[in-house]
User: What shape does this take?
Amino acid sequence: MQPASEQEALDLLDNLRIKYKRLDHPAIWTMNDPNAPKGVHEVKNMLLKQKKTNQFYLYLTDNPRIDFKSLADQLGIPRNRLTFASEAELAQLLGLVPGMVTPLALMHDRHHQVQVLLHRHLQSMTAIPAHPNINTATVLLSYRDLLQVLRAMGYEPSVID
Assistant: This one.
């Protein structure tokens, strides 16, 4: 698969007339990276997989500590069946590398194998940060605009606790 590009993410936002604020910064590889812009509440984006199936979950949360047991319970699967997608799966499904996971790359999930999960706390955030398919920039979107982007790509996210 062709790598996801910054331009296609920005074009998507522009074509949908989504207003966003762009922040350029040094590469951010983790939620607690010291290069993260000051004052920006980081959102963790993870591509998870149900073992031995082709069911994938893009999970967005504001919580740096993930309760995998609770998440698996909410998905109706055993905890030992939930794992991180491999680097190869991430590249094949979304055209990304670890550290750049973003909902803006879902346009690459041509067969809609990914189910989008949004933690309920995101609804109260004033701005949702997302990488535009690179980790040297962040775009800030409203929750409403994030939903509009996801729906335009054919996803109806599930809100979870």
Summary: The chain has four helices and eight strands. The chain has one domain: 6-28+37-160.
